């Protein structure tokens, strides 16, 4: 395990016997998600699945394999929006993020949690430490990744061995300090840059990236690579306090999901747009968190309960 940065803030309310929430963003992963759910360790107290409006049976498979999974929906498209919604919904002391395609192995989770309990604030998996690796890297992605690691280390004076990997864990009490805003795959870069700037003690643990078990990749190496690069460069010069995360993470817990192919569930632009939901969806609970600019008037009449901060 390698550790970077000195702690600049005291531990707040940390326990040696923490509860753990696992957040899993999933977009059309019906063929892989069952394996992922089945391999989540028994000591995990909560699994939050963020369904990115899948048009396959992802949610059904999940509820078959683990009926107590908390399913939430995101307010904008993309892995970043999904993770932010999932983080806001999580209730455990520790949040672990993993992918739904089987490429991040849930059986490795213990080492992430152990590193946090041992004193780290933020733990990231590394495919380049001894004991780690990847059987999912293409040459282009591998070279791109090395470039990002080199550039980030240069810009931030760090000694990371890997970046842009979707296996991370942190204490939920630090979530607000991370002030996350990213909607797309650049969320992984934003997370690390935020953790650095927030002065968190960051540890790397070895991780073996597996092949996605089935289905289609959502990543476009060039397009998403450019977003990651932009995030890295912007992050170096923008203090955390200047980041506008007022749009916040808003997630919607529904009893039924919108009809397949529904256009009513739009990517966010305004909170009103985010809440424009399909007529077939029966909303039970809307969870609003992190200063989302949502007022009670914007909530549809069918919302029976709100949890979290409404900015009224
Ligand atoms: N909820 C949600 N999940 C998403 C979205 N985009 C990607 N994901 C999930 O995020 C995880 C990572 O996405 P992948 O498409 O596997 O991207 P990748 O791992 O970089 O690419 P591969 O190595 O080719 O699999 C997977 O679990 C996806 O299902 C989205 O818009 N919404
Ligand atoms: Mg993947």
CATH classification class:
Alpha Beta
> How many β-strand stretches?
13
- Major sheet: order of its strands? 1-9-6-8-5-2-3-4
State the share of residues found in helices, binned by percent. 25-40%
Summarize the structure in words.
By secondary structure, this protein is α/β, with parallel strands linked by helices. The chain has one domain: Spore Coat Polysaccharide Biosynthesis Protein SpsA, Chain A (Alpha-Beta Complex), CATH 3.90.550. 28% of the residues lie in helices and 19% in strands. It has nine helices and 13 strands. The protein has helices at 33-38, 58-65, 79-89, 109-117, 139-156, 175-178, 187-197, 221-237, 271-274; strands at 2-4, 20-26, 46-51, 70-73, 94-97, 122-126, 133-134, 168-171, 202-206, 208-209, 249-254, 283-289, 305-308. The strands form three sheets. The protein has an eight-stranded mixed β-sheet, sandwiched between helices. The longest helix is centred in the middle third of the chain and has 18 residues, at 139-156. It is globular, with a radius of gyration of 18 Å. Bound molecules: guanosine-5'-triphosphate and magnesium ion.
How do the helices and strands line up, and which of them pair or pack?
Elements: E1 2-4, E2 20-26, H1 33-38, E3 46-51, H2 58-65, E4 70-73, H3 79-89, E5 94-97, H4 109-117, E6 122-126, E7 133-134, H5 139-156, E8 168-171, H6 175-178, H7 187-197, E9 202-206, E10 208-209, H8 221-237, E11 249-254, H9 271-274, E12 283-289, E13 305-308
Parallel strand pairs: 2-3, 2-5, 3-4, 6-9, 7-10, 12-13
Antiparallel strand pairs: 1-9, 5-8, 6-8, 11-12
Helix pairs in contact: 5-8, 7-8
This protein binds guanosine-5'-triphosphate (GTP) and magnesium ion (MG).
Guanosine-5'-triphosphate is lined by residues 25-27, 29, 50-52, 74, 77-79, 82, 99-101, 103, 136, 166, 212, 217-219.
């Amino acid at each position: 395990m390698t550790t970077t940065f000195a702690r600049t803030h005291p531990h707040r309310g940390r326990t040696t016997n923490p509860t753990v929430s696992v957040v899993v963003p999933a977009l059309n992963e019906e063929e892989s998600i069952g394996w992922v759910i089945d391999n989540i360790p028994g000591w995990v107290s909560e699994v939050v699945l963020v369904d990115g409006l899948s048009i396959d049976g992802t949610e059904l498979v999940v509820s078959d394999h683990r009926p107590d999974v908390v399913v939430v929906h995101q307010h904008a498209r993309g892995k970043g929006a999904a993770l932010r919604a999932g983080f806001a919904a999580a209730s455990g002391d520790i949040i672990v993020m993993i992918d739904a395609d089987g490429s991040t192995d849930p059986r490795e989770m213990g080492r992430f949690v152990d590193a946090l309990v041992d004193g780290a604030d933020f733990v990231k998996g590394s495919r380049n430490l001894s004991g780690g690796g990847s059987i999912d890297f293409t040459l282009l992605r591998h070279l791109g990744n090395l470039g990002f690691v080199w550039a980030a280390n240069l810009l931030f004076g760090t000694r990371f061995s890997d970046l842009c990997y979707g296996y991370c864990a942190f204490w939920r009490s630090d979530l607000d300090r991370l002030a996350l805003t990213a909607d797309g795959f650049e969320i992984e870069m934003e997370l690390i840059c935020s953790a650095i700037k927030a002065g968190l003690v960051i540890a790397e643990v070895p991780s073996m990236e597996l092949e996605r078990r089935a289905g289609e990749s959502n990543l476009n190496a060039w397009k998403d690579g450019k977003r990651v690069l932009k995030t890295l460069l912007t992050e170096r010069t923008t203090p955390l306090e200047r980041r506008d995360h007022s749009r916040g993470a808003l997630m919607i817990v529904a009893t039924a999901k919108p009809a397949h192919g529904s256009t009513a569930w739009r990517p966010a632009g305004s909170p009103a747009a985010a809440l424009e939901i399909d007529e077939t969806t029966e909303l039970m609970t809307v969870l609003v968190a992190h200063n989302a600019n949502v007022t009670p008037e914007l909530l549809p009449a069918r919302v029976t309960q709100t949890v979290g901060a409404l900015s009224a």
